[in-house]
Specification:
One of its GO terms (molecular function) is 5-amino-6-(5-phosphoribosylamino)uracil reductase activity. This protein has about 220 residues and is of the alpha/beta class. The protein is built from six helices and nine strands.
Length: about 220
Amino acid sequence: MIPKLVIHNSISLDGSTTGFTANLDVHYGILGSYEPDAMIVGSNTAKTGTQFFCEKIPPEEESDFKKPDIQPDDTRAYWMIADSRGILEGLMHVFRRSEYSKDVIVLVSEKTPEAYLNYLKERDYDFIQAGAERVDVKQALEIANERYGFKLVVSDSGGILNSILLEQGLVEEISLILTPEIVGKNGTNLFRGIEKSGTQLELVRNEIVEKKYVHLVYRVLKK
């Protein structure tokens, strides 16, 4: 069994995920209202996102080599980061330190470099190995449900991972924060990786946030 999966993202009026400044308080405030067990993020999105957490990557400290102490009343979500190629080596402590993250679980594949797996083990990161060349997201979600009891996972990622999730029929709901900006031709479409058209949606909620943003929630209609 896989957890319920919701895609959540902030986009411009013309559907771009880049080229504008997202309101992180609004973005994570709405994401937090879902009270997810975990957030799933692609490695490229995570690497780009380090700029929001720190101007310069800080050096690792002794505390970065062990799991954080998690209190029973901690309502933050775990972060599941898909990184089969190990591009986040040397950066993982940035996410572990984030105020938005309870701790990090890394999704890897059978082809993930052994050196990267050792890097994760030395720092006591949990990881889920699923898939041959790339991460098999469906299998990883099934393992997360069995191992951690995750019931609700929110994708806070870019177009590549979100497209995979949609095309594999794993998404039940899409949550979008519409920002009143137009990016233009240099924009990055949220679902640019989808090859087949025809995904049908049903609008279930819309509301104005801070007199500037529009929060739209769609249910994905199963074919």
